[in-house]
Amino acid sequence: MTRAQTVLTLNLFLMTFVLGTSEFVIVGLLSEVSASLKIAISTAGALVSAFAISFAIATPILTAILSRFSKYPLMLTLIAIFIAGNIMTALSDSYALLLFSRIVTAIVTGVLIALAMAVASETVPTEKRGSVISIIFTGFTLASVIGVPLGTFIGQWLGWHMTFWFTALMGIVSLTASSLTIPRGLKGAKNSLKKQLGLLTHSRIILAFFIPAFSIGATYTVYTYLTPLLKEVLFVPERYISLVFLLYGIVSIFSTLIGGKLANRNGIGKLRYVFLIQAAILASLYVTSSSIITGLISISFIALVVYTMSSTMQLFFIDFADKHVPSAKDLASSLTPVSVNVGIALGSALGGFVTTQKELIDVSWIGGSVAIAASILACISFRLDRKTKLRNVISEQQQIS
Q1: Furthest CA-CA distance within the chain
Q2: Cβ atoms within 10 Å, residue 256
Q3: I need a surface site. Which of 24, 166, 196, 232 has the fewest CB within 10 A?
Q4: DSSP characters for 21-57?
């Protein structure tokens, strides 16, 4: 790649890091937000669901609508709105304003991710697109490793409002870098909105969409309430909470690497068993939570499997669109993060229900049940793939004969 392409890739990596930090850091601050606004922890947890639902609904629609505009001014405008959303969050003194600001931030976050993938696809050599896209996705992982623990630390020592002043500042850095690196000649494509959204009507896409949603939903049933779990069940001192999130983030990097290996060949077939392992790990927390050490081991293994499906599913969506609806490839690139956010909404809402109706630790085995559902969907998708390949082989043999 040229120097300009390398610098652009690093900027898009920075952008996803900033977006990921802003999205995920609220998980480490639920207790602080709950105490500050005098609301229940489950009500604070609803902020995670609201962000994810807004992300999931707005991203495919707005990506399809805005794809006709030039990417340079569009992305700078969206980053500016992202900064404004974080400033609004930092200034929030009521739950209603906080909720509104998070929804605004979620809407632009989803579109920016889709546009970042599109820019990468259009500007780097074809043989480098896969590796560049994986680097951009790694920004989210690094957000868990550095951004969330740092934001949690800032929130616990200086107040949760200060955390979002921090993310707004990072947004300004991203805006500056983007203004210098994003090519100005990337024109929009005037594709039919109806034709693009038609991708979402394919039964295989619908089925595949819920595989990562259920897998992430299983994890977020627990992860959304990790801070109260650490405090009230494992009795981890508050000063060490940010370190646990750091541990979680570091281990999740290996999850991404494992996912890349799984995607090389027959990824969905392998995921059938990975999700069963995930279910067992989540459920194990119910038993291991009696000790800090064993509980933290279970949490580490939860992080180890959290992103194992990302690469496989991203390739599936892109390849399917390329074969059946080529005009919707940009939209297809957004489906994995959209599905992940649907899963986050599902998991955080389910976890909130559990925390109000059952014991806090019950989120563990209930999350495991959702992972089993992901395994079932992966089995169905795998069998459909085998049938399709078998039909293609039979068809080719008939043509030869």
Answers
A1: 75
A2: 19
A3: 232
A4: HHHHGGGGGHHHHHHHHT--HHHHHHHHHHHHHHHHH
| Domains with residue ranges and CATH for the chain | 1-190 (1.20.1250.20), 192-401 (1.20.1250.20)
The amino acid at residue 56 is A
> Can you tell me the distance from the alpha carbon of 199 to that of 182, in angstroms, rounded to the nearest whole number?
28
Q: What tokens does 359 get?
A: 């014991």
Tens-digit pLDDT string for the chain (401 aa): 788 888 998 999 999 999 999 998 988 888 899 999 988 888 888 898 888 889 888 888 888 888 778 889 999 999 999 999 999 999 999 999 999 999 999 999 989 988 887 788 778 776 666 667 777 877 887 887 788 888 988 998 999 999 999 999 999 999 999 999 998 877 766 666 777 778 888 999 999 999 999 999 999 999 988 989 999 999 999 888 878 888 888 888 888 778 877 876 677 889 999 999 999 999 999 999 999 999 999 999 999 999 888 878 877 887 888 788 877 777 887 788 889 888 988 898 899 899 889 999 999 999 999 999 999 999 999 998 888 777 777 776 766 66
Residue 292's CB is within 10 A of a number of other CB atoms, namely: 16
Cα angle for residues 198, 204, 210 (degrees, 5° grid): 100
Rounded Cα gap, residues 221 and 241, in angstroms: 18
Give the number of other Cβ atoms within 10 Å of residue 195's Cβ: 12
Single-letter amino acid, residue 179: S
pTM, entire model:
0.78
Q: Are 221 and 350 in contact (CB under 8 A)?
A: yes
Both structure tokens of 57: 């609904």
Q: What is the C-alpha to C-alpha distance for residues 258 and 114, in angstroms, rounded to an integer?
A: 24
d(Cα 148, Cα 146) in Å, to the nearest integer?
A: 6
